[in-house]
Design goal:
single chain; alpha/beta; Aspartate Aminotransferase, domain 2; Aspartate Aminotransferase, domain 1; seven-stranded mixed beta sheet; five-stranded mixed beta sheet; 14% strand; globular
């Protein structure tokens, strides 16, 4: 499996820098652009509203921004895509995909588990779509004449379940498949290579990597990109150029960050799996956690996010979250530092209790996004928090 190299990461989206006479990505903060003539301005406006990638004049920042466009070009290259379209957030990106397929139908098939807010958007009815939630092997049976999209997240949030993309694509037939590949990044997985039509990232996470950008992106064919740009122009869910600059700046270190964090996560997963205070660890790199043998075939590695369940339910889990000192108790993931959070109380709280249970999200489940720290330092912090939680539970029982 050919991976995205360090050379690719260092040079992506920088093809014209020598012509521009710059070394660092330039930031274009203009909200409007002077017109050479009304005729050329009108032609540019028509082209951009129709979803074209560029025009002679940007006209207005809601239609096009060169700083964002350079980062989009880099992500397209990373995902082996013809194009990529940036958005103000991952949820804005998902919303655009759902709106872009409405002319094909109003039914969506979604494989659970998904990120909690993605699940909530699909159940809310806000966009006028009807959703059938299924397991990975049930996609074909759930299709209807007006099914417009199949949605998969792999690795899944927060159970880290791996979904066979090629198998889902085969079941979907002519229905396009969208893969949320946020946890994997283009470093570990390229869904388009396996037949997906659209690959989405919450770029807030690993693609940014520093906890200072809110963004989303969809990589796809140019024909899909035109539809998505039309939605972006109409809804205004644009990515700010400063965010585009920060994302482009972060790209050369993406492979380094992902591979280092993955190494640390593997060490922590092994320690947690061997600990009697932990009921179960969810991490694709552990023995028995990749039953479909997708590591090496679909993914280049298990990633740096894991989850684990402890006895004692919410109270014990809250004790661990409150007890860590080095690890940051916070939602999100993919930062340079390690984050811990409680899915049932936070990222997946918007789902019903029954739906959470069906997805394997129990009250004692904690999700850990592993950063770049030394594994021994992280383990010492977790060990102390687990000790305190176990002691408190024993005291209550006594």
């Amino acid at each position: 499996m050919k991976t995205w190299s360090h050379t690719d990461a260092a040079h992506a989206g920088r093809d014209r820098f020598r012509q521009l006479g710059v070394h660092a990505p330039p930031v274009d903060l203009s909200t409007t652009y002077p017109l050479d003539s009304l005729v050329s301005g009108t032609a540019s406006l028509d082209a951009l509203v129709a979803g074209q990638a560029a025009a002679d004049n940007p006209v207005y920042a809601r239609l096009f921004n060169p700083t964002v466009a350079r980062w989009e070009q880099a992500i397209a290259q990373a995902e082996t895509a013809e194009a990529a379209v940036g958005f103000a957030s991952g949820m804005a990106a998902l919303t655009a995909c759902l709106l872009a397929v409405r002319d094909s139908g109003s039914h969506v098939v979604a494989v659970r588990p998904l990120y909690g807010t993605s699940d909530h958007l699909l159940t809310s009815g806000l966009l006028g779509v009807r959703t059938s939630f299924v397991r990975a092997g049930e996609v074909a049976r759930a299709l209807k004449p007006d099914t417009a999209l199949v949605i998969v997240e792999t690795p899944a949030n927060p159970t880290l379940e791996l979904i066979d993309i090629e198998a889902v694509v085969a079941q979907a037939g002519s229905v396009p498949v969208l893969v949320d590949s946020t946890f994997a990044t283009p470093i570990l997985q390229r869904p388009l290579v396996h037949g997906a039509s659209l690959v989405m990232h919450s770029a807030t996470k690993f693609l940014s990597g520093h906890g200072d950008v809110m963004a989303g992106v969809v990589a796809c064919s140019e024909s899909w990109a035109e539809k998505l740009r039309q939605v972006r122009v109409a809804t205004g869910a644009v990515l700010h150029p400063w965010a585009g600059f920060l994302l482009h700046r972060s790209l050369p270190t993406l492979k380094l960050r992902v591979e280092r964090a993955q190494q640390v996560a593997g060490a922590l997963a092994e320690r947690l799996a061997a600990d009697s205070r932990v009921r179960e660890v969810h991490y694709p790199g552990l023995q028995g956690k990749d039953p479909l043998r997708l590591l090496g075939r679909q993914m280049c590695g298990p990633g740096s996010v894991l989850s684990f369940s402890i006895a004692g339910g919410l109270r014990a889990a809250a004790s661990v979250v409150d007890g860590v000192e080095l690890i940051t108790p916070a939602v999100s993931l993919g930062s340079t530092d390690t984050l811990i959070q409680h899915p049932a109380a936070l990222t997946h709280r918007v789902m019903s209790e029954a739906d959470r249970a069906a997805c394997g999200i129990d009250p004692g489940l904690l999700r850990l996004s592993v950063g770049l720290e030394e594994p021994e330092d992280l383990w010492a912090d977790l060990d102390r928090a687990l000790f305190d939680a176990t002691r408190d539970r024993a005291s209550r029982a006594a």
